[in-house]
């Protein structure tokens, strides 16, 4: 009998973390590596937010807090939802955790029973299916094609719902594609959900403020108020506020669900970092002008990457509406052989050969549930992106 839990056999380590770790190891060994795998902004946390964290330390705010968040942060979160999304929540409807991932995990652990199904559009963030599996549920993926802008249709959602469906787990703008659902597109999905009152909605809005061009962000409970009582609206400060390492995520939803999530957290990690919570109060309540400035850089980088990748032989790269990722198709590269003799049988082989032969680290599409593609994070310098895309162009030109 194995000493380890059988549950672990159902899941795999995070491929994005694996790629980032491999790139760091190669760089430490002296290789010239450009890592495009990490999903975090390269900008520093804004000064006023850093100052709030330092002030919390100096004022001795370093002790245990309430399990799922200090009152000041819950009040700031309620104000944020009212201000940005037109959603009214009381502090008792808010949960704060050590990152958005823990919020999602707590909700799944608190609600899933064996055979419960969770519908997840693909491409998806790599952790969604495995968190469902860890919680004892069954992930049901619905593939969104390049032709539909990596967005599922109402008919696809309708077809995926069964009596066992408990959650629809939704992310817009998307990691890994950057695709964003318009109000009308989201309304079509919420109309389906209104016909199935046993299905709840878990919406991951982590990239809410990273929206570009004429795309306007919206969230399910905002589009369809009838879903308010069965929606968990998840967000955090990691991406827009450049606070990935501070580890603060939050959610708002029905009180009974929030209480159940609190129980899970009370017996696992207890409260999020006290210092990070005070920094998050300043992030939500303080000035936000830096977001627009950062987004200008992201748009410039996005345009650079999309243009250069579309010039590479065998690659088709659509223009995303938000986040800081592109998800190009490499259908034109499959079946070819690299200059060093690597056979490109799938997107994992492509990513492996690309790293070994050019030093560019990307995440292969199968990790996100849709192939043949790969994900590029353009949350790095223009110079690094230009050099990396040039290497990708040369790699593709050498395929035979």
TrEMBL record:
InterPro entries: Aminotransferase_I/II_large, AspAT/PAT-like, PyrdxlP-dep_Trfase, PyrdxlP-dep_Trfase_major, PyrdxlP-dep_Trfase_small. It is an enzyme of class 2 (transferase). Its EC number is 2.6.1.1. The keyword Membrane does not apply. It comes from the Bacteria. Its cofactor is pyridoxal 5'-phosphate. GO terms for biological process: amino acid metabolic process. Homodimer. Belongs to the class-I pyridoxal-phosphate-dependent aminotransferase family. This is aspartate transaminase. It comes from Salibaculum griseiflavum. The lineage of its organism: Bacteria, Pseudomonadati, Pseudomonadota, Alphaproteobacteria, Rhodobacterales.
């Amino acid at each position: 009998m194995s000493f380890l839990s059988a549950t672990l056999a159902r899941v795999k380590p995070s491929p994005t973390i694996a790629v980032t770790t491999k790139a760091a190891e190669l760089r430490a060994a002296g290789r010239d590596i450009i890592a495009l795998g990490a999903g975090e902004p390269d900008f520093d946390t804004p000064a006023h937010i850093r100052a709030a964290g330092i002030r919390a330390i100096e004022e001795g705010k370093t002790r245990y807090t309430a399990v799922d968040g200090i009152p000041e942060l819950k009040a700031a979160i309620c104000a944020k939802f009212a201000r940005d999304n037109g959603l009214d929540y009381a502090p008792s409807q808010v949960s704060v955790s050590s990152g958005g991932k823990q919020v999602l995990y707590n909700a799944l652990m608190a609600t899933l029973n064996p055979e419960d199904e969770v519908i997840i559009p693909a491409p998806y963030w790599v952790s969604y299916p495995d968190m469902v599996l860890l919680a004892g549920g069954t992930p049901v993926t619905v593939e969104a094609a390049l032709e539909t802008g990596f967005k599922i249709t109402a008919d696809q959602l309708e077809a995926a719902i069964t009596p066992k469906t408990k959650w629809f787990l939704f992310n817009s703008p998307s990691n890994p594609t950057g695709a964003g659902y318009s109000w009308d597109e989201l309304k079509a999905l919420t109309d389906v959900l209104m016909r199935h009152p046993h299905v709840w909605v878990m919406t991951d809005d982590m990239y809410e403020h990273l929206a570009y061009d004429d795309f306007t962000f919206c969230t399910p409970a905002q589009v369809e108020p009838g879903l308010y009582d069965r929606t968990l609206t998840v967000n955090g400060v990691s991406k827009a506020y450049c606070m990935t390492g501070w580890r603060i995520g939050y959610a708002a939803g029905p009180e009974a669900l929030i209480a159940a999530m609190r129980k899970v957290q009370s017996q696992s990690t207890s409260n999020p970092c006290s210092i990070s919570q005070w920094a998050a109060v300043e992030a939500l309540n303080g000035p936000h002008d830096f977001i627009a400035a950062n987004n200008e850089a992201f748009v410039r980088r996005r345009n650079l990457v999309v243009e250069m990748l579309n010039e590479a032989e065998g690659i088709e790269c659509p223009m995303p509406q938000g986040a800081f990722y592109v998800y190009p198709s490499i259908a034109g590269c499959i079946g070819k052989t690299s200059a060093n003799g690597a056979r490109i049988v799938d997107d994992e082989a492509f990513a492996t050969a690309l790293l070994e032969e050019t030093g560019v680290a990307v995440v292969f599409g199968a990790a996100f549930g849709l192939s043949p593609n790969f994900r590029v994070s353009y949350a790095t310098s223009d110079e690094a992106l230009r050099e990396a895309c040039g290497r990708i162009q040369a790699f593709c030109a050498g395929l035979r």
